[in-house]
Specification:
By secondary structure, this protein is an alpha+beta fold. Helix content is about 30%, strand content about 25%. A hairpin with a 3-residue loop joins strand 1 and strand 2. Helix 6 packs across helix 9. It is elongated. The N and C termini lie far apart (about 55 Å). It catalyses: biotin + L-lysyl-[protein] + ATP = N(6)-biotinyl-L-lysyl-[protein] + AMP + diphosphate + H(+). It holds the Pfam family HTH_11. It is an enzyme of class 6 (ligase). Its EC number is 6.3.4.15.
């Protein structure tokens, strides 16, 4: 029934007018009762579907629903093999890692409407109110060395940049390595985790949190966070944004795997990078220092020219960019 419901939803979404019940039966090889049950489930999930005798069914509105059926019906191509949706969960990364341990296939996307224990880098809490944000984690099983897994954070950042641009027209920048920023404030955070042995990766989970339809933030993050709705003045259809981000991710992922590095993506990443050519402050455990960001290399490391002319590569850690998140 799950696959039938998804196909029926896609069918009525693709039509401007009515789709007859008989046409749905014939197209998917199911009974009238199966169609009726699927329509009933979709209505319960929040889809406004009009049913008219001798005409069939027509989708009126879905009110930004992000159920499994809505998400799967929105995907293009075969990159996403499976979607697991939770109305509420602790963290999509936690759920995704558990599913990966249980054998979830490459290309599984875990999505929730509400996180009660969302995490960012370094264990920070990620604000995750219900019905407003995008909280998702992608499970991949790439044939790459564990040392290359962190590059997938940068691949995801490029995909989110493209997704936001295509769905809203909004120009953003990428703050190396894992934030999407607009007007000096954070729109999106990305967290990549993995399970691996010395010679290979069992799985990689990349979590993506996008501030989509929030209209405000708690005081402790209000100065550094913003949302697509605040910036554009209107609501964002989350299912479409998720689908567009995944489509963009697929394209970048193919290029990444073909090179085995970010060599083929360096130029586009540097083009969108907030840090490029600007003064940055690197909070190195051995001692903080400032310098000029020159871009990333093929490993995704940030190249920084220090005041004394010495060029160093930042593998990971906190990097502040002047004019962003209060760094002046």
């Amino acid at each position: 029934m799950r696959a039938v419901k998804t196909e029926i939803l896609k069918a009525i979404k693709d039509e401007a007018g009515f789709v007859s019940g008989q046409e749905l039966c014939d197209r998917f090889g199911v009974s009238r009762t199966a169609v009726w049950k699927a329509i009933g489930q979709l209505k319960e999930e929040g889809f406004q579907i009009e049913a008219v005798r001798n005409k069939g069914y027509r989708l009126l509105s879905s009110d930004d629903v992000i159920t499994e059926a809505e998400l799967m019906s929105s995907m293009e191509g075969g990159f996403i093999k499976k979607i697991v949706y939770y109305e509420e969960t602790d963290s999509t990364n936690i759920r995704a890692k558990k599913l990966a341990e249980e054998g979830a296939p490459d290309g599984t996307l875990v999505v929730t409407d509400f996180q009660n224990a969302g995490r960012g880098r370094r264990g920070r809490m990620w604000v995750s109110p219900s019905g407003t944000g995008i909280f998702m984690s992608l499970i991949l099983r790439p044939d790459i060395l564990p040392s290359s897994a962190s590059m997938l954070t940068l691949v995801a950042a490029l995909a989110v940049y493209d997704g936001i641009k295509e769905t809203t027209g909004l120009e953003t920048v990428i703050k190396w390595p894992n934030d999407i920023v607009a007007e000096g404030k954070k729109l999106c955070g990305i967290l990549t985790e993995m399970s691996a042995e010395l010679e290979g990766i069992h799985y990689v989970v990349t979590g993506i949190g996008i501030n989509a339809n929030m209209t405000g933030f708690p005081e402790e993050v209000g100065e550094s966070a913003t949302s697509l709705r605040i910036l554009t003045g209107g609501p964002v259809r989350r299912s479409r944004l998720i689908a567009v981000v995944m489509k963009a991710y697929e394209g970048y992922y193919v290029k990444f795997k073909s090179c085995g590095s970010l060599a083929g993506l360096m130029d586009v990443y540097n083009e969108h990078m907030a840090n490029l050519g600007r003064e940055v402050k690197v909070l190195d455990p051995a001692g903080a220092y400032t310098g000029k960001a020159l871009g990333i290399d093929e490993k995704g490391e940030l190249i920084v020219e220090k005041a004394d002319g010495k060029v160093v590569r930042v593998v990971s850690g906190e990097v502040s960019v002047r004019g962003i998140y209060g760094y002046v």
